[in-house]
């Protein structure tokens, strides 16, 4: 459907865009963040929405593929091509303005290239909270976060990226602009194009700005790391905490001993929080209104949970530094995983009640494929597990190249059988297109294809992401 | 695009559906709820999803229009045709099952014909809250509520109907079924078809069941009716209450003296809550976690607000009966409005900070058109006003037939100029198609048309709702 960007393309665009729009060092843009593959293409960084529109109109007329590029942190290859005709890579890195803040409305309008940490700070500056939070917040950009409907640690309370967005400005493939930058809380005038664009991974158009919903900052916050006898007990603990604290439970993260063992393995200075690391732990984070004391609330929860046999030990943060230290452990696990090097990493979600069954069945099934170390952790309150499979100590991931496909299929088949999703928060990108075809509902896939063809008739937008290029076959 | 349902259609369907599928008394189905116009058509009430699929497949092959019918409470004509070829009206009234409840997941799966009050009770039965709540909850059905993305009084805290839905089962126009009844909190596998179907008002397919998200019941609830000096003060009061109570503020309703005067006018037994009714009041409802006392919290808010000059008087509910009585006043206003008979009724939303400007400007602008009584009330926390214009006492709405269009245009133009929406929660239906064309962003309308054509190529689904039938022109 689409054709390659060439030196002619570059010459044409140089004639209509300022000189500083072009990136000659294409290394960061065309390298998968884990170094798994490299892409190709011309990289352009427009200054504003009008330039984005001009570029898209040009490419659409010539059927040149366009790959939108945010912070480059995606793990499913949505931000770079792994084959096919070289595209134009459109980086939003220069569109970083906070266009406006509306303190009395708890709304902020940010351009797509704004970095998440900067948006969090802009919210803080007007006394509000922008609750989207994840490990890559120092480099991930709003456009990419919305395009992939990013998750993170506060989804339990505040929802995913989709729930933080009130309105969008989007450049369509033909270069026309949808001005949907609404700050309205309610608007039932036609189809929900905002939520269609969110999570479409740049295959239907390019977001250039978003109106973001801010929330009141909780009056008091707290955290605790609790040892639990099993994943099932962890879920009961979540229900107990929610019964007592309602929406006050902001995050509820499952951690396995393997994660802490990895931290010790890659960083010998790491100090484990418990004298003897339990097999399963949860990190619970709370935010409460004025009049409730977070530490006391966590103690009450701990006591009730201990009485019910749901916790066996625990550490309640006594200061902001304590809380940061507990969170630092959780947030260091992905980097430790990367340094160990996984055979296969999954980002799955399950109906909450099926989480224990998944964990109980996955280990024995994998053991039939080979001997592995398993680090299962993640956002338990959302039913979202990062179930990552590693080589034994002394081996490397490449020793298991022949088993990788079987491991993935085993875990995805089990997820699917239990009513789960094979991509909870990372999206489809290019690396999970086959999974979507294998596990997706056929009627859903047919509707997605129809929508793609309707909104991007020339197939130029992020070709091969989410939906396969039919001409690739 | 579509053709009329005829006696041949009826004969064909009688051959493949049980006898009790047909409705000979078509009066409720074909009458606008305020009696404003009548429709035409054949009425069929299938028992299950397979029958819905059979009916749609039949109609699609013959290009017969299909109008989905839920509780019939919509106010914008989405549930009945106001002209054109007679359609098949497909009522979901027999698909009322609660298919399953999942207490440990806080999820419930209901068929599209389940009545909202029954769903609320089913949630209550497992100790949870289904927070969608509105005046017509005794007759509105889940399919219609989701198809119109209904709002109501708890949107401020819990979001609109869209936010309560985790998954959908939808019959496509060609009779194929999308099984999207997911109970997952996170699932980033492809385009967000769920949110596209929600709010599409039956123009893209027919919802047959939904997986609904339940929430924990707050440990304690309370309510107060407070007199405020102005709409601007009401907004400051909202900010003050949210600063202190966070998410604890469940509803924040604006009430004008005119509403209470109407209650007195239509029901002389009505007892006004204040000795002297203030011009502006707010009804605030709160739900708090264990450890906080709602009455005390409301008193603290009242005292701080009084000190800041934001309230002048107030009634804090001292019992559940008190709270019900305050809510009864609010919920009686729409019926009083109906009995008075409006010249024109608007369902608009505004950026929160623009609400005072709208109220300040709308009255003087209307005064240039004629002499009216104005009842402005609604969900202030969401920026959603029901701004309704009535004849003076002794006159009737028909006395102002010549001014109706000017009143509507005046209010909608002002709404649009202030960045608002001309349909906050009622949808477009057939009565606001022209408004959508007038005020909608052209790029948005083009995308909506493309999606409609892609997902309903024969144009059979709810013809003329949301988007005009091009062949009508």
UniProtKB/TrEMBL annotation, chains A, B:
Gene3D superfamilies: 3.30.465.10, 3.30.70.2190, 3.30.70.2740, Vanillyl-alcohol Oxidase, Chain A, domain 4. The keyword Flavoprotein applies. One of its GO terms (biological process) is respiratory electron transport chain. Its cofactor is FAD. One of its GO terms (molecular function) is FAD binding. Residues 36-217 form the FAD-binding PCMH-type domain. Keywords: FAD, Flavoprotein. Belongs to the FAD-binding oxidoreductase/transferase type 4 family. This is FAD/FMN-containing dehydrogenase. It comes from Loktanella atrilutea.
